[in-house]
Amino acid sequence: MPQLGESVTEGTIGKWLVNPGDQVKKYQPIAEVITDKVNAEIPAPQDGTIVSFAVAEGVTVKVGTLIAMMETGAGTGSAAAAQPTAPAAVGGPVRASSGPAAALAPAPSPGKAAAAPAPLAAAGSATLDRAEAGGGARYSPAVMRLAQEHGIYLNRLKGTGLGGRITRKDVEAYIASGAAAEPAPQAETALQAAAAQAPGSAQTASPAPAASPVPQPMAADQVIPVDAVRRRIAEKMLQSKHEAPHAWTMMPVDVTGLVKLKEQLGEEFKRREGISLSYVPFFIKAVVEALKEQPIINSQWAGDKIIIKKEINISIAVATETALAVPVIRNADRLSIAGLNHAVADLAGRARAGKLTLDDISGGTFTVNNTGYFGSAMSAPIINHPQAAILSFEAITKTPVVMENDAIAIRSMMNICMSLDHRILDGLVCGRFLQAVKSRLQGYAAGTVQLY
Fold it and tell me: The whole model's pTM is what?
Protein backbone atom coordinates (compact mmCIF):
# COMPACT_ATOMS: atom_id res chain seq x y z
CA MET A 1 0.00 0.00 0.00
CA PRO A 2 1.76 3.17 -1.16
CA GLN A 3 1.68 6.56 0.55
CA LEU A 4 -1.25 8.12 -1.28
CA GLY A 5 -1.26 11.56 0.28
CA GLU A 6 -0.18 13.75 3.15
CA SER A 7 -1.13 12.31 6.55
CA VAL A 8 -2.65 9.21 4.92
CA THR A 9 -1.67 6.18 7.01
CA GLU A 10 -3.96 3.49 5.61
CA GLY A 11 -6.22 2.64 2.70
CA THR A 12 -9.06 0.29 1.83
CA ILE A 13 -8.89 -1.88 -1.29
CA GLY A 14 -12.14 -0.89 -2.95
CA LYS A 15 -11.76 -2.94 -6.10
CA TRP A 16 -9.07 -4.89 -7.89
CA LEU A 17 -8.94 -3.78 -11.55
CA VAL A 18 -6.88 -6.79 -12.68
CA ASN A 19 -6.84 -10.52 -11.99
CA PRO A 20 -4.01 -12.91 -11.11
CA GLY A 21 -2.28 -13.89 -14.33
CA ASP A 22 -2.98 -10.57 -16.08
CA GLN A 23 -0.08 -8.84 -17.78
CA VAL A 24 0.16 -5.14 -16.92
CA LYS A 25 2.16 -2.16 -18.13
CA LYS A 26 3.97 0.31 -15.90
CA TYR A 27 1.56 2.95 -14.53
CA GLN A 28 -1.49 0.88 -15.54
CA PRO A 29 -4.13 1.11 -12.76
CA ILE A 30 -4.36 -2.18 -10.91
CA ALA A 31 -6.58 -1.30 -7.94
CA GLU A 32 -8.96 1.32 -6.60
CA VAL A 33 -8.17 2.44 -3.06
CA ILE A 34 -10.49 4.36 -0.75
CA THR A 35 -8.86 6.70 1.73
CA ASP A 36 -10.24 9.83 3.33
CA LYS A 37 -13.38 9.70 1.20
CA VAL A 38 -11.52 9.68 -2.12
CA ASN A 39 -11.18 6.89 -4.65
CA ALA A 40 -7.60 6.71 -5.93
CA GLU A 41 -6.03 4.29 -8.37
CA ILE A 42 -2.81 2.42 -7.62
CA PRO A 43 -0.61 2.10 -10.70
CA ALA A 44 1.60 -0.85 -11.51
CA PRO A 45 5.19 0.03 -10.49
CA GLN A 46 6.58 -1.61 -13.63
CA ASP A 47 5.76 -3.99 -16.49
CA GLY A 48 4.97 -7.51 -15.38
CA THR A 49 2.39 -10.16 -14.55
CA ILE A 50 0.09 -10.09 -11.54
CA VAL A 51 0.75 -13.26 -9.54
CA SER A 52 -1.53 -12.98 -6.51
CA PHE A 53 -3.43 -10.67 -4.18
CA ALA A 54 -2.45 -10.47 -0.52
CA VAL A 55 -5.37 -8.25 0.49
CA ALA A 56 -9.01 -8.79 -0.43
CA GLU A 57 -11.49 -6.13 -1.54
CA GLY A 58 -12.97 -4.22 1.38
CA VAL A 59 -9.96 -4.73 3.68
CA THR A 60 -8.17 -1.73 5.21
CA VAL A 61 -4.41 -1.94 5.61
CA LYS A 62 -1.64 0.42 6.68
CA VAL A 63 0.71 2.17 4.30
CA GLY A 64 3.59 -0.19 3.48
CA THR A 65 1.55 -3.38 3.80
CA LEU A 66 2.06 -5.95 1.06
CA ILE A 67 -1.12 -5.99 -1.04
CA ALA A 68 -0.16 -8.02 -4.11
CA MET A 69 2.68 -9.85 -5.83
CA MET A 70 3.72 -9.38 -9.44
CA GLU A 71 6.40 -10.96 -11.60
CA THR A 72 8.58 -8.56 -13.56
CA GLY A 73 10.08 -9.09 -16.97
CA ALA A 74 13.21 -10.47 -15.27
CA GLY A 75 11.09 -13.20 -13.67
CA THR A 76 11.40 -11.94 -10.11
CA GLY A 77 8.54 -11.42 -7.73
CA SER A 78 7.94 -7.89 -6.45
CA ALA A 79 5.44 -6.22 -4.19
CA ALA A 80 2.87 -4.57 -6.42
CA ALA A 81 2.54 -0.81 -5.99
CA ALA A 82 5.29 -0.72 -3.36
CA GLN A 83 7.28 2.52 -3.18
CA PRO A 84 10.58 3.45 -1.53
CA THR A 85 8.60 5.28 1.16
CA ALA A 86 6.79 2.10 2.15
CA PRO A 87 9.23 0.45 4.56
CA ALA A 88 6.80 -2.16 5.84
CA ALA A 89 6.59 -3.76 2.40
CA VAL A 90 10.11 -5.15 2.73
CA GLY A 91 11.41 -6.83 5.86
CA GLY A 92 9.39 -7.38 9.02
CA PRO A 93 5.79 -8.46 9.50
CA VAL A 94 2.70 -6.64 8.25
CA ARG A 95 -0.80 -6.64 9.65
CA ALA A 96 -4.20 -5.63 8.35
CA SER A 97 -4.61 -2.41 10.31
CA SER A 98 -8.29 -2.69 11.00
CA GLY A 99 -8.46 -6.44 11.36
CA PRO A 100 -9.34 -8.05 14.68
CA ALA A 101 -6.67 -10.59 15.69
CA ALA A 102 -5.30 -10.47 12.14
CA ALA A 103 -2.63 -13.08 11.46
CA LEU A 104 0.87 -11.89 10.67
CA ALA A 105 2.84 -12.85 7.61
CA PRO A 106 6.46 -11.95 6.93
CA ALA A 107 7.14 -9.86 3.85
CA PRO A 108 9.85 -11.07 1.48
CA SER A 109 13.33 -10.08 2.59
CA PRO A 110 15.74 -8.35 0.18
CA GLY A 111 17.85 -11.48 -0.04
CA LYS A 112 14.89 -13.54 -1.22
CA ALA A 113 13.36 -11.09 -3.67
CA ALA A 114 13.78 -13.55 -6.54
CA ALA A 115 12.01 -16.40 -4.79
CA ALA A 116 8.99 -17.80 -6.56
CA PRO A 117 5.81 -16.22 -5.18
CA ALA A 118 3.60 -19.26 -5.76
CA PRO A 119 2.97 -19.96 -2.05
CA LEU A 120 1.57 -16.45 -1.62
CA ALA A 121 -0.72 -16.98 -4.56
CA ALA A 122 -2.27 -19.90 -2.76
CA ALA A 123 -2.33 -18.59 0.77
CA GLY A 124 -1.40 -14.90 0.79
CA SER A 125 -4.88 -13.54 1.11
CA ALA A 126 -5.81 -16.12 3.71
CA THR A 127 -2.78 -15.13 5.77
CA LEU A 128 -2.80 -11.35 5.52
CA ASP A 129 -6.40 -10.31 5.39
CA ARG A 130 -8.27 -12.83 7.49
CA ALA A 131 -8.68 -13.15 11.22
CA GLU A 132 -8.59 -16.44 13.09
CA ALA A 133 -12.08 -17.30 14.23
CA GLY A 134 -12.59 -20.09 16.70
CA GLY A 135 -9.80 -22.33 15.38
CA GLY A 136 -11.64 -23.18 12.17
CA ALA A 137 -13.08 -20.64 9.77
CA ARG A 138 -11.10 -17.47 9.00
CA TYR A 139 -12.74 -14.16 8.12
CA SER A 140 -11.51 -10.80 6.84
CA PRO A 141 -11.69 -7.78 9.17
CA ALA A 142 -14.43 -6.24 7.00
CA VAL A 143 -16.48 -9.43 7.27
CA MET A 144 -16.03 -9.60 11.04
CA ARG A 145 -17.04 -5.97 11.53
CA LEU A 146 -20.11 -6.32 9.31
CA ALA A 147 -21.15 -9.55 11.02
CA GLN A 148 -20.77 -8.00 14.45
CA GLU A 149 -22.80 -4.93 13.52
CA HIS A 150 -25.67 -7.04 12.21
CA GLY A 151 -25.47 -9.93 14.68
CA ILE A 152 -24.81 -12.49 11.95
CA TYR A 153 -23.78 -16.09 12.66
CA LEU A 154 -21.10 -16.47 9.97
CA ASN A 155 -21.15 -20.28 9.95
CA ARG A 156 -24.62 -20.04 8.41
CA LEU A 157 -23.24 -18.38 5.29
CA LYS A 158 -21.85 -20.10 2.22
CA GLY A 159 -18.74 -18.34 0.95
CA THR A 160 -18.12 -17.56 -2.72
CA GLY A 161 -14.48 -16.54 -2.28
CA LEU A 162 -11.30 -18.52 -2.75
CA GLY A 163 -11.62 -21.95 -1.12
CA GLY A 164 -15.18 -21.16 -0.01
CA ARG A 165 -14.05 -18.11 2.00
CA ILE A 166 -16.85 -15.78 3.11
CA THR A 167 -16.42 -12.34 1.53
CA ARG A 168 -17.88 -8.97 2.42
CA LYS A 169 -20.22 -9.26 -0.57
CA ASP A 170 -21.54 -12.57 0.81
CA VAL A 171 -22.40 -10.87 4.11
CA GLU A 172 -24.03 -7.90 2.37
CA ALA A 173 -26.14 -10.25 0.26
CA TYR A 174 -27.16 -12.13 3.41
CA ILE A 175 -28.18 -8.86 5.08
CA ALA A 176 -30.15 -7.75 2.01
CA SER A 177 -32.05 -11.03 2.03
CA GLY A 178 -33.44 -10.22 5.47
CA ALA A 179 -32.03 -13.38 7.03
CA ALA A 180 -29.71 -11.29 9.20
CA ALA A 181 -32.66 -10.36 11.40
CA GLU A 182 -32.42 -13.78 13.03
CA PRO A 183 -30.62 -13.67 16.39
CA ALA A 184 -27.07 -15.03 16.37
CA PRO A 185 -26.25 -18.01 18.62
CA GLN A 186 -24.40 -17.24 21.82
CA ALA A 187 -21.12 -18.83 20.67
CA GLU A 188 -20.85 -16.68 17.55
CA THR A 189 -21.82 -13.53 19.44
CA ALA A 190 -19.06 -14.19 21.97
CA LEU A 191 -16.58 -14.81 19.17
CA GLN A 192 -17.41 -11.52 17.47
CA ALA A 193 -17.26 -9.62 20.75
CA ALA A 194 -13.83 -11.09 21.50
CA ALA A 195 -12.61 -10.21 18.02
CA ALA A 196 -13.88 -6.64 18.38
CA GLN A 197 -11.79 -6.20 21.53
CA ALA A 198 -8.61 -7.71 20.08
CA PRO A 199 -5.54 -5.48 19.62
CA GLY A 200 -5.53 -3.71 16.27
CA SER A 201 -9.29 -3.87 15.91
CA ALA A 202 -11.04 -0.89 14.37
CA GLN A 203 -13.45 -1.06 17.28
CA THR A 204 -10.60 -0.16 19.64
CA ALA A 205 -10.47 3.36 18.20
CA SER A 206 -14.20 3.94 18.57
CA PRO A 207 -15.69 1.33 20.91
CA ALA A 208 -19.42 0.89 21.08
CA PRO A 209 -21.05 0.44 24.48
CA ALA A 210 -21.16 -3.27 25.26
CA ALA A 211 -24.72 -3.02 26.54
CA SER A 212 -26.06 -1.49 23.32
CA PRO A 213 -27.62 -4.20 21.14
CA VAL A 214 -27.21 -3.98 17.38
CA PRO A 215 -30.55 -2.85 15.86
CA GLN A 216 -32.15 -5.52 13.74
CA PRO A 217 -34.26 -4.65 10.67
CA MET A 218 -37.88 -5.65 10.38
CA ALA A 219 -39.05 -7.52 7.32
CA ALA A 220 -40.28 -4.35 5.57
CA ASP A 221 -37.21 -2.26 6.38
CA GLN A 222 -34.66 -1.26 3.79
CA VAL A 223 -31.09 -2.30 4.63
CA ILE A 224 -28.22 -0.26 3.19
CA PRO A 225 -24.80 -1.88 3.66
CA VAL A 226 -22.21 0.55 5.03
CA ASP A 227 -19.66 1.00 2.25
CA ALA A 228 -16.03 1.96 2.76
CA VAL A 229 -16.67 5.67 2.13
CA ARG A 230 -19.45 5.95 4.71
CA ARG A 231 -17.42 3.89 7.19
CA ARG A 232 -14.43 6.22 6.73
CA ILE A 233 -16.64 9.27 7.33
CA ALA A 234 -17.97 7.66 10.51
CA GLU A 235 -14.46 6.89 11.75
CA LYS A 236 -13.27 10.46 11.13
CA MET A 237 -16.30 11.98 12.87
CA LEU A 238 -15.89 9.69 15.88
CA GLN A 239 -12.18 10.45 16.04
CA SER A 240 -12.86 14.17 16.08
CA LYS A 241 -15.58 13.97 18.74
CA HIS A 242 -13.58 11.57 20.93
CA GLU A 243 -10.27 13.42 20.76
CA ALA A 244 -11.26 17.09 20.60
CA PRO A 245 -13.37 18.64 23.38
CA HIS A 246 -15.82 20.62 21.28
CA ALA A 247 -17.06 24.06 22.28
CA TRP A 248 -19.42 26.18 20.23
CA THR A 249 -20.14 29.89 19.74
CA MET A 250 -22.31 31.96 17.41
CA MET A 251 -22.47 35.59 16.24
CA PRO A 252 -25.09 37.42 14.13
CA VAL A 253 -23.85 39.41 11.13
CA ASP A 254 -25.56 42.12 9.08
CA VAL A 255 -24.74 41.25 5.45
CA THR A 256 -27.11 43.71 3.78
CA GLY A 257 -24.21 45.35 1.96
CA LEU A 258 -22.88 41.99 0.75
CA VAL A 259 -26.28 40.99 -0.61
CA LYS A 260 -26.56 44.25 -2.59
CA LEU A 261 -22.97 43.91 -3.80
CA LYS A 262 -23.55 40.41 -5.13
CA GLU A 263 -26.73 41.51 -6.87
CA GLN A 264 -24.91 44.38 -8.54
CA LEU A 265 -21.84 42.40 -9.66
CA GLY A 266 -23.33 38.96 -10.30
CA GLU A 267 -24.56 39.41 -13.87
CA GLU A 268 -21.38 41.07 -15.14
CA PHE A 269 -19.22 38.49 -13.36
CA LYS A 270 -21.05 35.56 -14.97
CA ARG A 271 -20.83 37.14 -18.41
CA ARG A 272 -17.11 37.74 -17.98
CA GLU A 273 -16.08 34.55 -16.16
CA GLY A 274 -18.65 32.03 -17.35
CA ILE A 275 -19.65 30.96 -13.82
CA SER A 276 -22.00 32.39 -11.21
CA LEU A 277 -20.69 34.56 -8.39
CA SER A 278 -21.52 32.98 -5.03
CA TYR A 279 -21.32 34.16 -1.43
CA VAL A 280 -18.71 31.54 -0.47
CA PRO A 281 -15.62 33.37 -1.83
CA PHE A 282 -16.61 36.46 0.18
CA PHE A 283 -16.91 34.27 3.28
CA ILE A 284 -13.51 32.68 2.65
CA LYS A 285 -11.86 36.05 2.03
CA ALA A 286 -13.14 37.35 5.36
CA VAL A 287 -11.93 34.18 7.09
CA VAL A 288 -8.37 34.19 5.70
CA GLU A 289 -7.91 37.85 6.61
CA ALA A 290 -9.16 37.14 10.14
CA LEU A 291 -6.83 34.12 10.41
CA LYS A 292 -3.89 36.42 9.77
CA GLU A 293 -4.96 38.48 12.78
CA GLN A 294 -5.52 35.40 14.97
CA PRO A 295 -3.03 32.78 13.68
CA ILE A 296 -3.63 30.46 16.64
CA ILE A 297 -6.99 29.58 15.02
CA ASN A 298 -5.02 28.12 12.09
CA SER A 299 -3.42 25.41 14.21
CA GLN A 300 -3.39 21.76 15.22
CA TRP A 301 -3.06 19.85 18.51
CA ALA A 302 0.02 17.59 18.51
CA GLY A 303 0.07 16.00 21.97
CA ASP A 304 2.75 17.94 23.82
CA LYS A 305 2.70 20.93 21.46
CA ILE A 306 0.44 23.12 19.33
CA ILE A 307 1.42 23.57 15.69
CA ILE A 308 0.47 26.91 14.13
CA LYS A 309 0.36 26.32 10.39
CA LYS A 310 2.12 28.87 8.21
CA GLU A 311 0.02 28.13 5.13
CA ILE A 312 -3.66 29.06 5.14
CA ASN A 313 -5.35 26.19 3.31
CA ILE A 314 -9.13 26.41 3.49
CA SER A 315 -11.16 23.19 3.48
CA ILE A 316 -14.66 23.59 2.08
CA ALA A 317 -17.43 21.15 2.97
CA VAL A 318 -19.18 19.83 -0.15
CA ALA A 319 -22.24 17.61 0.17
CA THR A 320 -22.75 14.93 -2.47
CA GLU A 321 -25.72 12.60 -2.88
CA THR A 322 -24.11 9.86 -0.81
CA ALA A 323 -21.32 11.41 1.25
CA LEU A 324 -19.47 14.52 2.37
CA ALA A 325 -16.23 15.65 0.74
CA VAL A 326 -13.91 18.32 2.13
CA PRO A 327 -11.56 19.50 -0.65
CA VAL A 328 -8.90 22.11 0.06
CA ILE A 329 -8.12 25.52 -1.45
CA ARG A 330 -4.37 25.85 -0.96
CA ASN A 331 -2.87 29.23 -0.05
CA ALA A 332 -6.34 30.73 -0.07
CA ASP A 333 -4.97 33.99 1.35
CA ARG A 334 -3.14 34.59 -1.93
CA LEU A 335 -6.27 34.44 -4.08
CA SER A 336 -8.64 37.25 -5.03
CA ILE A 337 -12.38 36.89 -4.55
CA ALA A 338 -12.68 35.97 -8.23
CA GLY A 339 -9.93 33.40 -7.85
CA LEU A 340 -11.59 31.92 -4.80
CA ASN A 341 -14.89 31.74 -6.69
CA HIS A 342 -13.24 29.71 -9.46
CA ALA A 343 -11.50 27.46 -6.94
CA VAL A 344 -14.75 26.75 -5.08
CA ALA A 345 -16.66 26.01 -8.30
CA ASP A 346 -13.91 23.69 -9.56
CA LEU A 347 -13.54 21.69 -6.33
CA ALA A 348 -17.30 21.44 -5.73
CA GLY A 349 -17.90 20.26 -9.28
CA ARG A 350 -15.21 17.59 -9.10
CA ALA A 351 -16.36 16.49 -5.64
CA ARG A 352 -19.91 15.88 -6.88
CA ALA A 353 -18.55 14.08 -9.96
CA GLY A 354 -16.33 11.86 -7.78
CA LYS A 355 -13.16 13.14 -9.46
CA LEU A 356 -11.24 14.55 -6.50
CA THR A 357 -7.66 13.43 -6.00
CA LEU A 358 -5.93 12.80 -2.69
CA ASP A 359 -4.02 16.04 -3.12
CA ASP A 360 -7.36 17.85 -3.37
CA ILE A 361 -8.33 16.82 0.16
CA SER A 362 -4.95 17.00 1.88
CA GLY A 363 -3.34 19.76 3.91
CA GLY A 364 -6.39 21.75 5.05
CA THR A 365 -5.80 24.02 8.05
CA PHE A 366 -9.28 25.52 8.64
CA THR A 367 -12.75 24.54 7.38
CA VAL A 368 -15.52 26.75 6.02
CA ASN A 369 -19.01 25.25 5.80
CA ASN A 370 -21.86 26.96 3.92
CA THR A 371 -24.79 25.36 5.76
CA GLY A 372 -26.94 28.33 4.79
CA TYR A 373 -27.23 26.71 1.36
CA PHE A 374 -29.70 24.27 2.95
CA GLY A 375 -31.58 26.98 4.82
CA SER A 376 -29.96 26.25 8.18
CA ALA A 377 -30.23 29.02 10.78
CA MET A 378 -27.84 27.57 13.38
CA SER A 379 -25.52 24.58 13.48
CA ALA A 380 -22.81 22.99 15.61
CA PRO A 381 -20.46 21.36 13.06
CA ILE A 382 -17.94 18.67 13.98
CA ILE A 383 -14.33 19.84 13.70
CA ASN A 384 -12.41 18.52 10.71
CA HIS A 385 -9.66 16.62 12.55
CA PRO A 386 -6.84 17.56 13.17
CA GLN A 387 -7.81 21.21 12.64
CA ALA A 388 -8.58 23.47 15.59
CA ALA A 389 -11.91 24.91 14.42
CA ILE A 390 -14.63 24.99 11.78
CA LEU A 391 -16.88 27.92 10.84
CA SER A 392 -20.38 27.58 9.40
CA PHE A 393 -22.13 30.35 7.51
CA GLU A 394 -25.88 30.06 7.93
CA ALA A 395 -28.84 31.18 5.83
CA ILE A 396 -29.28 34.88 5.02
CA THR A 397 -32.73 36.04 6.06
CA LYS A 398 -34.50 39.41 6.09
CA THR A 399 -34.99 40.36 9.72
CA PRO A 400 -36.32 43.46 11.55
CA VAL A 401 -33.35 44.96 13.39
CA VAL A 402 -33.14 47.79 15.91
CA MET A 403 -30.54 50.24 14.59
CA GLU A 404 -28.28 52.58 16.56
CA ASN A 405 -30.84 55.41 16.55
CA ASP A 406 -33.52 53.02 17.82
CA ALA A 407 -35.13 52.92 14.38
CA ILE A 408 -36.31 49.54 13.14
CA ALA A 409 -35.06 48.47 9.72
CA ILE A 410 -35.32 45.32 7.61
CA ARG A 411 -31.79 43.95 7.21
CA SER A 412 -30.25 40.83 5.65
CA MET A 413 -28.94 38.92 8.66
CA MET A 414 -26.83 35.78 8.94
CA ASN A 415 -25.45 33.73 11.83
CA ILE A 416 -21.86 32.52 11.82
CA CYS A 417 -21.35 29.43 14.01
CA MET A 418 -17.97 28.20 15.16
CA SER A 419 -16.99 24.85 16.70
CA LEU A 420 -13.58 24.89 18.37
CA ASP A 421 -11.13 22.50 19.97
CA HIS A 422 -11.05 23.71 23.58
CA ARG A 423 -7.63 22.15 24.13
CA ILE A 424 -6.19 24.83 21.82
CA LEU A 425 -8.67 27.69 21.73
CA ASP A 426 -10.52 29.70 24.36
CA GLY A 427 -13.49 32.03 24.17
CA LEU A 428 -11.47 35.24 24.06
CA VAL A 429 -9.42 34.45 20.96
CA CYS A 430 -12.43 32.90 19.19
CA GLY A 431 -14.54 35.97 20.01
CA ARG A 432 -11.87 38.20 18.50
CA PHE A 433 -11.69 35.98 15.43
CA LEU A 434 -15.46 36.07 14.89
CA GLN A 435 -15.49 39.83 15.37
CA ALA A 436 -12.82 40.15 12.69
CA VAL A 437 -14.84 37.98 10.29
CA LYS A 438 -18.01 39.93 11.11
CA SER A 439 -16.32 43.27 10.56
CA ARG A 440 -15.16 42.29 7.09
CA LEU A 441 -18.50 40.81 6.06
CA GLN A 442 -20.33 43.93 7.21
CA GLY A 443 -17.81 46.10 5.37
CA TYR A 444 -18.58 44.65 1.95
CA ALA A 445 -20.25 47.30 -0.19
CA ALA A 446 -20.29 48.39 -3.82
CA GLY A 447 -17.23 50.38 -4.78
CA THR A 448 -15.15 49.14 -1.82
CA VAL A 449 -14.46 45.52 -2.88
CA GLN A 450 -11.93 44.38 -5.46
CA LEU A 451 -12.97 41.12 -7.10
CA TYR A 452 -9.66 40.74 -8.93
Answer: 0.61
